[in-house]
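Morning F.,

Quick status update on the modeling queue. The single chain you submitted on Monday has been processed. Sequence for confirmation:
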Amino acid sequence: MAKPSNKSPLKKKKPSTIEEKARSFGSLLLTLLVVLFIQSFFIQGYSTPTGSMLNTILIGDKMFFNQFLFGGSTPRFIPFTEIKLPYFQLPAIREPRRNDIVNFEFPGNRDELVPSSKVQYLKRTVGQPGDVIEVKNKVLYVNSVEFPKPEHMQFSMPKMIPADYHDPEIFPKGAPWNKDNYGPLKVPSKGDIVTLTMDNYYHWDTFIKREGHKIEIKGNAQILIDGKETNTYTVERNYYFMMGDNRDNSLDSRFWGFVPRENIVGKAWFVYFYWNSEIPFSQIGRLLGSIKFDRIGKSIE
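Structure tokens below.
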């Protein structure tokens, strides 16, 4: 007959508090990395901060953007900072097209060499590289053909700005136009050769500097690029022209200029949620009451 053992059954060793915390931190880190990977390469969330796209997109719409279409990239900035990171970008499935609603890194105000703030804008692509943009009495033409009017496009100011009024804030600097009567202006395409004169020098000054070159005037009539006298410049990138659907209340390419291709992040996909973000959480009843269920799942065109 077997003798009863005096040894107590083995107990499973409980993980220490440090081990538990390490595992939790590891799981959280892995989740964040997966979310960051998806957001970087495939889908990005975006909240509408202004009314420049009314009524196509409402203030308070929370949307998903398809980044994979134009070539998703690893993060370009350290999160919650404006510190740039070296990044890797996937090949694009296709290039942005006219009528695409896109989000993009703001290239900077008209006369800024470097954007004063790192923000993303949301606009409709109306001009591709090589297109000629013109606005006549508020009507947009691309390559001399009237641009299709978006279904929910609107004008908030019925009064027309006369064609002979030259808005000093318009792009490019010194152009004799305004937002209602604009152009014609060609959107630069890689390889375009621009003829430089003393009359159009300030049209191209900031543009050329943003492409990484030094441009200056020597004497009364000599134009120098990188120290060499020249009267031409070869464009190094492809550019796009953006406008808001709320045409009278949109700070867009008519005021700050062209958007480089590499700045374009993704194409608007659909609205995943809406509520009035101006209502504070302290008024949760009003906030929940502002939800527009008919906006949820709405595709953006």
